[in-house]
Amino acid sequence: MADAAAREPGLKTVVGASAAGTAFEWYDFFIFGSLTTVIARHFYADVGEATSYILALLTFGVGFVVRPLGALVFGWFGDKVGRKTTFLVTITMMGLATVAIGLLPDYGQIGLAAPALLLLMRVLQGFALGGEYGGAAIYVAEHAAPHNRGFMTSWINTTAALGLIGALVVILTTRLIVGVEAFDAWGWRIPFILSGLLLAISLWIRLKLNESPAFRRMEAAGGQRRAPYREAFLTWKNGRFVLIALFGVMFAQGAVWYCGYFYTRFFMERMLKIDVGTVDGLILAVSLASAFLYVFFGWLSDRVGRKPVMLFGMILALIAFFPGFQALTRAANPALAQAQASAPVTVVADPSTCAVQFDPVGKSAFVSACDIAKNILTNAGVSYETVAAPAGSTALVRVGSAEVASVEGAGLPADQLKTARADVETRIKSALAAAGYPDRADPERINLPLVFLILMVFMTAACALYGPQAAALVELFPTRVRYTAMSLPYNIGTGWVGGLLPAASFALAAASGDIYFGLWYSVVFTAVAIVVTLVFMPETRGRNLDTIGD
Questions:
Q1: pTM attached to this predicted model
Q2: Can 224-330+461-495+522-543 and 338-434 be said to share one CATH topology?
Q3: Is the pLDDT reported for residue 205 higher than 70?
Q4: 3-class SS of residue 89
Q5: How far is CA 133 from the centre of its chain?
Q6: The Cα angle at residue 502 between residues 500 and 505, in degrees rounded to 5
Q7: Which residue has the higher pLDDT, 194 or 547?
Q8: What are the tens digits of pLDDT across the range 68-109?
Q9: Of 201, 216, 225, 227, which is least packed with CB atoms within 10 Å of its CB?
Q10: Dihedral angle at the C-alpha atoms of 412, 418, 423, 425, nearest 10 degrees?
Q11: How far apart are CA 267 and CA 262, in angstroms?
Q12: Where are the domains of the chain?
């Protein structure tokens, strides 16, 4: 017995080994996301710049789509076979697929096989990730004492910040060493290949681990054959908590965390026209400053409860969404905020001629006078209102008191349409410039400390929700079905609600003409989560993991 106890890994080893896979998850996420433009050029050639970028983003998104499937497969595997074996499989599959992306031949070498292989690697990554977080969180939770379970599992969630920091450091360092030209040609592969080192270290550590104590106790007790799917989803005592976890905790996780981390970045780059380097620096600073908050809120949940801490994060985000982004505009691009107030933009057009200004596959022509005008404003990141004009009238754009007539492009030859559109764009941009709308955010006028503080408000909300999340989800379900029941809502929330947030929010903003309208995506999901968590979510702090469901 003494020898067995001596061979038991320490809790620090358990946490470190478990967190490695989640670090992989975020490292890969940020690497692929940061290098999308480069990847598009290498794997989607000959289809145009815009379309290639969209295809690269869709390839990236496939990893999110398949995550719930991975959750179902590996959740079942983890409940039937064990936690250790499962997350050895998931981290190996994920790591090898990540390294493989860095080794794939590009379109110029093997043609259409290149994007097909890239897509396959993203499918494997997403599939593996579906089982990774659940296994890591459960493994740590089943080793931790009830009084510090929130604190110990919160270390898993800090890897989001560490993954971002690691990705940015590796990219920036590689680009600095090899040069920009060489990096775009072949150096982009290095960050993917270097993940093999993390894989080797993680496997070395994880192979030293034993099965979790809770799973071993369940196995030792024997009992009837387990049926994780039926027990998790088709029995009300467990199925209702799956629904509460999804519509409560995970709806909020997808809406709050992804808005705070990713939509803010998109908004600053596309809407506020801030230099990418400045945005990278801000995101890195916020990631470093917020890393400890995951642990703090996890620790706090051990003292006051999971539910109040997570509700604090949800409510703070809900309150901060609209005023926070409006304040972000004033702090980061004051000229834009001033122009919006003094010279609002209006499109006056026959409503029947106006289409929704969102084109995810780059195929919409946008040839009506209304569409041409709105498309120019959307691409410029300018908010506008639409006013109905008499039927048959040609659309025009009002910038303050100035008016710019659009042009009807239907029926024009392609070259004439291009020329006409360019003329309208020139006149609209001239009117915008005359009214004070900036083409780019002035670096000298960006209030960096205030921008940092605003971003920290969003990240505080995200960390308050995410810090106790792992412990709260683990404590909802009995050991027999914990892996299966926890993994599915987690991956639907992060993979679908969170993964689709940037595209959906942009679609809403483009369709409405209001750069802030996309925030309604996060607002609605967060509001639903608050109600579900407040009304239906039980307090789980300190639960005995062996007796849940008895």
A1: 0.83
A2: no
A3: yes
A4: helix
A5: 15
A6: 95
A7: 194
A8: 888 888 877 777 777 777 878 888 888 899 899 999 999 889
A9: 225
A10: 120
A11: 9
A12: 10-223, 224-330+461-495+522-543, 338-434
The rounded percent of the chain whose pLDDT value lies above 70 is 90
User: For residue 58, what pLDDT is reported?
Assistant: 75
**203 CB neighbour count, 10 Å cutoff:** 16
Assigned CATH topology for domain 10-223: Growth Hormone; Chain: A; (1.20.1250)
Q: Which H/E stretch holds residue 223?
A: none
3-state secondary structure of 398: strand
Domain 338-434 = CATH 3.40.30: yes
Spatial separation of the C-alpha atoms in residues 307 and 535, rounded to whole Å: 11
Q: Which of 134-143, 268-277, 412-421, 450-459 has the highest mean pLDDT?
A: 450-459
- Tell me 346's DSSP state: E
CATH tag, 224-330+461-495+522-543: 1.20.1250
Strands 402-405, 396-399: pairing kind: antiparallel
What is residue 388's three-state secondary structure? Answer: strand
Q: Cα(72)–Cα(234) distance, rounded to whole angstroms?
A: 14
- Spatial CA neighbour of 92 closest among 124, 134, 114: 124
| Structure-block tokens of residue 445 | 């006028």
Other CB atoms within 10 Å distance of the CB of residue 56: 23
Rounded to an integer, what distance in angstroms lies between the CA atom of residue 409 and that of residue 397? 16
Mean pLDDT score across all residues of the chain: 85
Tokens of 308: 């109040």
In the numeric block, which tokens belong to residue 18?
């478990």
